[in-house]
């Protein structure tokens, strides 16, 4: 079987609880990339938030950020694709925030705007948290993604609320507490398709790993999807024969080791 490209989610999939690639996975990805496999990180993170992992395996040709809303082409040092939240959706973001009393978090490029400017996750070099000024006219700003941090036990409830509230936007979740608002029609598969068009690769020759709702479309697109053992139940139900070990058990590394017969383990 011929594999030509590998699309990897980061958090909960490729990364362990120390926010890093395991030594085994780093070594395997480096070898596969050197052997000609296209390795592409596909994540909800910012460009700067994902870049250290691309550098750790010797560099990559493409990277998908913000759940497919931004694709960077390292070959030509350019943004290949970018989608922004339209003004009506930004208005809905503030309305949703007012109704449910959760402050919005905005993402654009490598800046993340929060109510108090404090980080809500591990900060990588080049990634900056800034204050979301309530008096500023954010409706005219370029914003790639909006996010609400909600209690994990109420995530499904707020996901339903968001689907009912937002018009002209794509809604998903990327963790047990992250409710995400992206431009309409945007998801990781959109980013994957932009990359595959550049590489002239058919999805049937691609592998992907993921663990959350924002991975669903990407996993559904490729010929060889794999779901982490720690993934949400809906993904396991949809891909029952494709569940591998958890991220803490090095599920990605062990699966790649088997697929490519590397005999690392």
UniProtKB/TrEMBL annotation:
One of the entry's Gene Ontology molecular-function terms is: phosphatase activity
Name a Pfam family for this protein. Hydrolase_3
Q: Which GO terms describe its cellular component?
A: cytosol
Per the record, the domain of life is: Bacteria
Which PANTHER family does this UniProt record tie to the protein?
HAD SUPERFAMILY HYDROLASE-LIKE, TYPE 3, PHOSPHOSERINE PHOSPHATASE
Q: What is this protein called?
A: Cof-type HAD-IIB family hydrolase
What organism, scientifically named, is this protein from?
A: Ignatzschineria ureiclastica
């Amino acid at each position: 079987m011929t594999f030509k490209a590998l699309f990897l989610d980061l958090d909960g999939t490729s990364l362990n609880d120390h926010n890093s690639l395991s030594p085994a996975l780093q070594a395997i990805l480096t070898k596969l990339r050197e052997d000609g496999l296209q390795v592409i990180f596909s994540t909800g993170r910012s460009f700067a938030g994902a870049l250290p992992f691309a550098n750790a395996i010797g560099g990559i040709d493409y990277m998908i950020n913000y759940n497919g809303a931004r694709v960077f082409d390292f070959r030509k040092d350019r943004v290949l694709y970018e989608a922004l939240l339209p003004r009506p959706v930004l208005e809905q973001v503030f309305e949703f925030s007012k109704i449910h009393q959760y402050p919005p978090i905005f993402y654009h490029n490598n800046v993340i705007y929060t109510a108090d400017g404090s980080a809500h996750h591990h900060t990588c070099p080049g990634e900056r948290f800034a204050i979301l000024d309530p008096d500023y006219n954010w409706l005219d700003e370029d914003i790639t993604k909006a996010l609400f941090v909600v209690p994990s036990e109420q995530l499904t409830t707020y996901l339903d609320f968001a689907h009912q509230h937002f018009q002209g936007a794509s809604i998903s979740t990327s963790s047990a507490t992250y409710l995400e608002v992206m431009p309409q029609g945007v998801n990781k598969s959109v980013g994957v398709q932009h990359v595959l068009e550049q590489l002239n690769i058919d999805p049937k020759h691609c592998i992907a790993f993921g663990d959350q709702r924002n991975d669903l479309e990407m996993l559904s697109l490729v010929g060889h999807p794999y779901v982490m053992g720690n993934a949400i139940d809906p993904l396991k139900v949809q891909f029952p024969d494709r569940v591998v070990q958890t991220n803490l058990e090095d599920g990605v590394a062990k699966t790649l080791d088997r697929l490519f017969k590397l005999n690392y383990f």
